[in-house]
Inverse folding.
């Protein structure tokens, strides 16, 4: 996510070459995160949301790098490239937003019920086996 944020910042500052290289450097890091989250999902360790959002972010980063590398030299960055970077940043932020909006589970200790004492105390009844 750091490379994507740095590429977005470089794109805002107008550093097209740096944005391209940061986007290309972000691909292996995003691929590693996506592969690990999918393998954790298959093992039952990670939630589905993490695997989906990391995979979507990888797809958006690859799209951004492809569009930006095919742009004409000296021209402005295509809007699709900037939009793909924003979409990748949003995909990375979805699990954090979901975590913040998750309802807090409050565990309350139930008060112990007061038991009324019986007015007459009964003695335990013994059960005898029936003789055969």
């Amino acid at each position: 996510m750091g490379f994507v944020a740095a590429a977005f910042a470089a794109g805002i500052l107008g550093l097209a070459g740096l944005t391209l290289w940061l986007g290309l450097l972000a691909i292996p890091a995003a691929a590693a995160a996506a592969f690990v989250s999918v393998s954790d999902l298959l093992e039952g360790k990670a939630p589905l949301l993490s695997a989906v959002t990391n995979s979507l972010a990888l797809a958006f980063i690859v799209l951004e790098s492809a569009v930006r590398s095919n742009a004409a030299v000296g021209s402005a960055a295509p809007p699709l490239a900037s939009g793909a970077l924003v979409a990748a940043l949003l995909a990375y932020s979805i699990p954090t937003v979901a975590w913040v909006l998750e309802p807090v589970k409050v565990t309350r200790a139930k008060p112990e019920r007061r038991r009324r004492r019986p007015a007459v105390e009964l003695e335990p009844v013994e059960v005898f086996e029936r003789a055969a």
Summary: The chain has a mean pLDDT of 86. Residues 16 and 75 are 9 Å apart (CA to CA).
